[in-house]
Design goal:
Oligomer: single chain
Largest sheet: 5 strands, mixed
Amino acid sequence: MTMTLTNFLTLVLLLEMGIPSQSFTASSSLSLRGLALNKAIHGSSPLYAADAATAVEEEEEISSILRPSYPIEPVPLRIGHGFDIHRMVPFEEAGQPVVIGGVVIDHEDQKWLDVEGKYTGTPNTIHKTQLGVLAHSDGDVIYHSLVDAIFGALTLPDIGQVFQDTDPRWKGCDSSKFMEHAYKVMTYYGYKIGNVDVTLILERPKVAGFKPRMKENIVRLLGTTEGRVNIKARTHEKVDSVGELRSLSCHVVVTLEKVDEGKKE
């Protein structure tokens, strides 16, 4: 890190507050500089030392890939888009159910197109079966799209770079963990949800009755309100893999609002 005069003065103040020097990095300078400035104005209050220690702990929770060398400029409004698609296969092959928006989608046996004839013995014939989602994690397309939309709005890498599908830690992982991390990243950069607009695309099973619970989960995980979250669902008119029940997909658009530092909740 290039040590500018401002960074040097910030480092001196942090050391006076008992924060170790190795905690100070180029990407953390903005948030820690604010705490150091508070110390300079208000003196060596234990409150500010505690705040600084908390900021360091929060930064350690945010992986370096989500703390780029360039500044995340504090613009008032940011917009992000996320997309995800996963294969649907018979439950015995997937080894896990269909989970969307944190809700297990219970359903009757569905008419799944067995393209390869793996289950019916004849290619391109219908196989009635319970469905599951084939994925490294739980394959929650709404949660994955939301995380990608939040990262995208903040000009950060995509979910696949942050939670790689080759990492055994995420095998079968509940995707609410990814949402919780996205929320931490969003608040770390000083933003909150403006609104969320979800478009879920799948032919079957029907999900209308599950949408209220999906919305409740999103509201809770992103610390927002019902009036800022919308979930729409549509079929794919029996076209391509989605229409044949062999996949499901999702688009999400989010807006993020800059939090007024003087009005933080």
